Amino acid sequence: xxxxxxxxxxxxxxxxxxxxxxxxxxxxxxxxxxxxxxxxxxxxxxxxxxxxxxxxxxxxxxxxxxxxxxxxxxxxxxxxxxxxxxxxxxxxxxxxxxxxxxxxxxxxxxxxxxxxxxxxxxxxxxxxxxxxxxxxxxxxxxxxxxxxxxxxxxxxxxxxxxxxxxxxxxxxxxxxxxxxxxxxxxxxxxxxxxxxxxxxxxxxxxxxxxxxxxxxxxxxxxxxxxxxxxxxxxxxxxxxxxxxxxxxxxxxxxxxxxxxxxxxxxxxxxxxxxxxxxxxxxxxxxxxxxxxxxxxxxxxxxxxxxxxxxxxxxxxxxxxxxxxxxxxxxxxxxxxxxxxxxxxxxxxxxxxxxxxxxxxxxxxxxxxxxxxxxxxxxxxxxxxxxxxxxxxxxxxxxxxxxxxxxxxxxxxxxxxxxxxxxxxxxxxxxxxxxxxxxxxxxxxxxxxxxxxxxxxxxxxxxxxxxxxxxxxxxxxxxxxxxxxxxxxxxxxxxxxxxxxxxxxxxxxxxx
Length: 511
Known about the structure:
Elements: H1 17-20, H2 26-33, H3 38-43, H4 57-69, H5 75-83, H6 86-92, H7 103-112, H8 115-131, E1 139-148, E2 156-158, H9 188-201, E3 204-206, E4 212-214, E5 224-226, E6 233-235, E7 243-253, E8 259-266, H10 275-288, E9 295-297, H11 305-313, E10 317-319, E11 334-336, E12 341-343, E13 349-357, E14 363-368, H12 371-375, H13 380-383, E15 391-395, H14 398-409, H15 411-434, H16 445-478, H17 481-510
Parallel strand pairs: 1-9, 9-10
Antiparallel strand pairs: 1-7, 2-5, 3-4, 6-7, 7-8, 11-12, 12-13, 13-14, 14-15
InterPro entries: IS1182_transpos, Tnp_DDE_dom, Transposase_InsH_N
Protein name: IS1182 family transposase
Pfam family, one: DDE_Tnp_1_6
């Protein structure tokens, strides 16, 4: 007989939420894994002793972490999703008939809580990873990736030149000061170079059919800013379109892939400029857990002289390849470290003369010989065809560059490059595609930093839960082994007794 199920929608009088959530559920194990009560002490000074009760800070952090774990960016969708999940309600400490906080309350609480509270939660989870043996600490892989800001590129405004303050008229209010992001801050030579490059790329173009058309407008952070999110920066990734982004910088431990540091940076600067701040935060966290840092892995975007010198001063081996334009040797010119001079193919010395800086403020050393030496040289048309003499410019960090280049060319350097690619790049892929970092739902540099911290905390919590589950499975497999060994010994003894009985019974059978 065909069965039919009827739904009566009756009221259940006896229902316990803890009985409906199985012990192996992710959120049930997560509630038992972390002691969340320390958040009350961290946020106690931020609340007044009078007034209405606010949103429970533990509930707030659990809610936003659920958003990262479920890959939900919108707070409105997060609340709707949590109301339909019994395991999440149990994790939050809410009953089935209890109303969850409004999505606007979550957004206001995220803005009011300082970033230091989020960092303390990250340190708390990271310390548990260290206690479980998931972090070695001696080798860290560093990388960065752009994250889309919560602003549109079509709404950018052009920056204005800063005007000198005029005389204040008595009885009138002074005009409000313009925000710093709306004022031109680039130097004159940078603006000239930008105008030259845009004039070369823009303008009328003639295609194969002879039609004339205008190219798209090229926007730059030197001349434009976002009115919606002034901290967002225009950046472009190879193969992608220009967008307003933030830069997410990560440090990942190479032992088990645990995130050891995360920070939000501006996307219009080079990766190498963010390494000193990243290194400071990373070493502070590792020292708090008594872990020494010995090796740092990064790509060529972090290569510059100050970074090499900083890491060598702290006795940290930098496995950072030098950028492609660097040449450890100059063709035909031999360098003598003792005399700090170059020798040309004709045997003429080019000694060190002075230090100088370029337009960006980088220091370099200049080597040259007297003009008469080059004027009488037969190789001058090939060596210095237009200049009066041959001049050699080398960075003041040339020795550190040379050591880094030699490390990268070795077999160990190639192996370290593969280790970095297999460690930090998969972490970025998981954060972007599975932990809600494809696009930010907040604005401002502080909000971006908080969001990236939450994504890293959720990632490390998943690592903790996987380690705990693997440990339980290994223990479950290991427990029956003594019983199996005892059964094997008993079986061998019984087989020996049977063989002895048969051997004794054979003579009697013959008789």
